[in-house]
Amino acid sequence: MMYVDYIFLNEGRFGHHTKTMVLSRSTPLEDYPMCEIVTFKNLSNNKEPKPEILLRPVASYRDPFRKGDNTMALCELEDESEKAVECNMRRPCKEILESVEDRELWFGLEQEYFLEDNRGDLAGWLANLRHLKFKDFYGGVGLTPTAAIEREIAEVHSRACFYAGIKFAGLNREDAPGQWEYQIGPCVGLAAADQLVLSRVLLDRVAEMYGFSVNYHPRPVNHCLPTSGLHINFSTKDMRSDGGIKYINEAMDRIASVDQTQLMECYDIRYGQENKERLTGDYYTPDASNFRAAVADKFASLRVPLLVAKKGCGRFEERRPASNCDIYTALAAFTKAALFGENY
Ligand code: ADP
Ligand code: MN
Ligand code: MN
Ligand code: MN
Ligand code: MN
Fold it and tell me: Is the shortest distance between the CB of 188 and ligand 1 below 6 Å?
């Protein structure tokens, strides 16, 4: 027998959940959808639809906690006729990304987050608020009474990701006490989003083991202090080839041409409301009301890293998505804007 953790997104968007089943080892996972009661709102009329829906495994990973043959299975939500439910945002994202597969899209995702202790306080926060400047924290060592345990969570999380087969790319302490970042990628197409979802589940699980929880809110502290984002790094085959900066500039021009309010709604689980509090132009955030593309500028909406500009090819970065965005909605909207100059 084997354990299978079925991973599903409530509201089809954020708030990942798992339910475990013990299956006979000969069961092919694809043939083993599970029915479950999932609470989510019908996006168009805000009513709760029929509660029982199908969890369809669409990607499976090695379970870093149980090891062996045990599995974690990312699921899509389907109705009784096996159609994707309206709030299953993976399905339309998959369709868009598959339609441009020949352009060889790569995504690199930077997930910022805060750790909270068992009292619900941000880790190391109160002790530091009094006397440290927030700019001291980026890449910092030590600095908080909980630094060692915070770092152990970040490190153990990276190991869990590697074990599961996630392309974990790095980690760093971020701008505030208790705040960290890790990166996934570069991954080809939809795999980036799937791996990000799994990496969030693994982060929550690792944090649990240490008596901490993860706060993904883009502005967890209600005043002018550091915030959390989810930068999307992006390239196509053309952008990575000699002279690719031309294609980078064209894609950034196409993003500039779409309705920015609509685009921002796709970058935020609360349709733009929470992220507005974050995008103030402080602490390396772009200003929500002032779209800008620039080289080596961490206050721009779109940034071409310095080394990319020097080399003349590579990638660019969309800095506006919120840390708690639905990654399928964000990548679908970003891709439509960057490749077609269209809103999602
Ligand atoms: P930043 O300088 O913005 O903090 P990071 O080093 O935190 O950048 O993250 C950069 C991300 O970009 C990583 O996830 C990395 O895998 C990804 N990346 C690197 N090269 C490419 C590329 N050509 N296309 C897409 N993503 C890339
Ligand atoms: Mn980064
Ligand atoms: Mn960062
Ligand atoms: Mn940051
Ligand atoms: Mn970045």
Answer: no
CA distance 319 to 83: 34
* Distance linking the first and last C-alpha atoms of the chain: 43
In this prediction the ipTM stands at: 0.99
- Whether omega before 186 lies within 30 degrees of 0, making that bond cis, reads yes
Residue pLDDT, tens place only, 266-315: 999 888 888 988 888 877 778 888 899 999 988 899 999 999 999 999 99
Pairing of strands 293-295, 302-304: parallel
5 C-alpha to ligand 4 centroid (Å): 32
Tell which residue, 163, 167, 108, has the closest CA to residue 331.
108
The CA distance from 59 to 76, in Å, is 9
- pLDDT tens, 73-104? 999 988 878 888 888 899 999 999 999 999 99
For residues 332 and 72, give the distance between their C-alpha atoms in angstroms, rounded to a whole number: 24
186 close to ligand 1 (CB < 6 Angstrom): yes
Q: Look up residue 89 and give its amino acid.
A: M
